[in-house]
Design brief:
Length: 309
């Protein structure tokens, strides 16, 4: 009898241990499943929307970028559609809201997007001169009577957009270095919304001077939209890091890499897709750190990216 009791006791203890171990394993598995379920999932896209910062007429931009969209759609295996915003910050807001997945940015609008919209730079265009940098310029009509930056005081001036690098950030830095406060020293300050519009404002004498960049200026001269001998370039900046293409960090890593490689190989596979923003000969890889100089300039001007709307 005692032997039987010992035998049943041993069996009972063994059974309880088995149940306990099973329960422990089950609990561990559930914990792992719970932990896994809490991990952020990468956003999947069935179509990719590519934001374009405004540089000229929207319809003209969509037309110029059509070969780009067709090439990217083929390379990614999903339809790529353009999103043309009314201004720079609208592109940032569209990415923050998840309405677009990648975008062309200016350097300043990019650091805004990196701060507000989880953007990550991955490529930058290289021009025919082999450079990805460009310059900001201050331009006036030859008959304005303006010969230097100091002569701008009391005049009507146009910037491009509050979030434009060459059309606002860098010109303001130039003015500060020359002892000029545009918000106090100019008779009137306006924003044209696009670089081409700034040039046309000078041409049509709507303002006395304006900010632009050397790329848009050169293109408009080449296309006969403005005459070089009708203008005076009062100042130009040091080289500025090129305008990057950036993607939302939360997208599928595989898609992000495919998009990056599509841009880096565009000049080999589809040269006709390069022409959206002027004469680009190829795209090189870009990193966020390259735009720290823009962040430093913003700090110099007390322009906190988190507070720019």
């Amino acid at each position: 009898m005692k032997m039987r009791l010992k035998k049943w006791s041993a069996l009972l203890i063994a059974g309880l241990m088995t149940v306990s171990l099973a329960a422990g394993c089950s609990t561990g598995a559930n914990k792992n499943e719970t932990a896994a379920s809490k991990e952020p999932k990468k956003a999947e896209v069935k179509e990719l929307k590519l934001g374009l910062i405004p540089a000229e007429d929207n319809e003209e931009m969509i037309k110029k970028f059509k070969p780009t969209m067709e090439y990217l759609s083929k390379e990614l295996g999903v339809e790529v559609k353009p999103f043309v915003a009314t201004d720079y910050t609208a592109v940032v807001e569209a990415m923050r809201a998840g309405h677009i997945d990648a975008a062309f940015f200016g350097p300043f609008s990019y650091i805004l997007a990196a701060d507000k919209a989880n953007a990550e730079a991955f490529a930058v265009g290289v021009r025919e001169d082999g450079k990805s940098t460009y310059k900001s310029i201050i331009i006036t009509h030859k008959n304005s009577g303006i010969k230097s930056l100091a002569d701008l005081k009391g005049k009507k001036f146009s910037f491009v957009d509050p979030a434009s690098t060459s059309g606002n950030l860098i010109p303001r830095a130039l003015f500060k270095k020359n002892g000029i406060d545009p918000d106090k020293d100019f008779a009137n300050v306006t924003y044209t919304g696009g670089h081409d519009a700034a040039e046309l404002a000078i041409k049509n004498k709507k303002v006395d001077a304006a900010a632009d960049n050397d790329i848009t200026y050169g293109r408009m001269v080449a296309e006969g939209l403005i005459a070089k001998d009708e203008n005076i370039i009062l100042a130009e900046s040091d080289p500025i890091p090129g305008s990057p293409i950036a993607i939302r960090k939360d997208l599928n890593p595989e898609l992000k890499e495919k998009l990056k490689q599509a841009f880096l190989k565009m000049h080999e596979k589809a040269p006709q897709a390069l022409g959206g923003y002027g004469k680009i000969i190829r795209y090189d890889a870009a990193t966020d750190k390259e735009y720290d100089v823009i962040r430093d300039t913003a700090k110099l001007l007390n322009l906190d990216p988190a507070k720019v709307k």
